[in-house]
Amino acid sequence: MSYPGYPPSGGYPSFPGYPPTGQESVYPPAGQYSYPAVPPGGYPPGGAGTYPAAPPSAGYPGAAGYPAPGGYPAPGGYAGAPQAGGMPPYPGAPTGPGFGVPPAGPAFGGYPQPPAQSYAGGGPAQIPVGYPGGQAPSPMPGPPAAMVQCTQGTIRAAPNFDAGRDAEILRKAMKGFGTDEQAIIDVVANRSNDQRQKIKAAFKTMYGKDLIKDLKSELSGNVEELILALFMPSTYYDAWSLRHAMKGAGTQERVLIEILCTRTNQEIQEIVKCYKSEFGRDIEQDIRADTSGHFERLLISMCQGNRDENQTVDYQKAQEDAQRLYQAGEGKLGTDESCFNMVLATRSFPQLKATVEAYSRIANRDLLSSIDREFSGNVERGLKAILQCALNRPAFFAERLYYSMKGAGTDDSTLIRIIVTRSEIDLVQIKQMFTQMYQKTLATMIASDTSGDYRRLLLAIVGQ
Length: 464
Description:
- The chain is mainly α.
- Helix content is 49%, strand content 0%.
- It contains 19 helices and no strands.
- It is elongated and about 70 Å long.
- The chain starts with 162 loop residues before the first helix and ends with a helix.
- Mean pLDDT is 77; it is low at 1-107 and 116-149.
């Protein structure tokens, strides 16, 4: 049994040219695309185009920051802070002042902020003399070399890993009458993505069978979708999700925003190459065919994977950008959308955070609420997603998870996609933010919104 919108049981995944004829035994197809392995310490891998790490006592990246254990925000709270049992005024919330509330302290439009941070060398980042406004913004990171990484996924590479032993466990779990779902869960929830790829290869070598096809024949519904997602290489899963969002009638714009507006340059460049090699299609052409106007242009900008990733903040440029954005929106009749696109698509996330702070002093309104006033629809959601990631990336994903389960029904595809894609990157921080934002744990909400093997596997991934 399959489920709506996911590859049918007759083939996996159901896109033209995959797998290529004669190469069904190779995953991914040999010679077409080399998927990046996920190292034991988390993702993204070291090298050009990645975010530098932040100090253990603070967050990641410095300005966009992940929250440190112990909570947020700095004294003074944030505008629109939820009361016990309530929820924050994020976009789409039925009540509350939302992003339109002027900042009441160090936060912006009700969006949660990471705590103030200190950096290697013993003191805060130095602020240029004569900074406009006469007030130093919150500390920003110094050179990347002065930092150490502090992100954390709930899934790490298993020690003493034996791909053949795991392949044998999975084979026994699916052999004969019935399926031992718990044995499958115990393996897949405790292996890194790179280790799962090795298990697939070992399974085919040992038994001459395709592990994915065997799993599909034994599983169904949401647990099938979740397990198949876990066995996709991470770059392929993002590319597959984008293709799926634009394939057929209608477009899932929120999926495009969630992936293209939050990934690193290196991740986006790998996704674009994978999309071409696996599906034989140009992602920019598909975006142009499925979207239009300023939203189309924003997504095309994101597809370039060319955002400045220098973590050092230029405060003078932040002031100039803030003034430019004010003149392009609140300070004139009408809106110069291209100005917003240029700044938000090119500046580093720490630089954008400094721009948000400078903007609130110039406009007496936070930038998120200005975007709320000047834009609408998908381009508004896309621009906000970029700023939310600059301010607090785990909070952005925590919010997406909350709304995937809030109310009647569950958006299982979003729940699965975020849990899987963040499980080796920052799901620990996302869990912390979820608890602080909604006064309940992520595991509690998952447990009340799902059931059976699907619930057990999700809880195993999030570390419960």
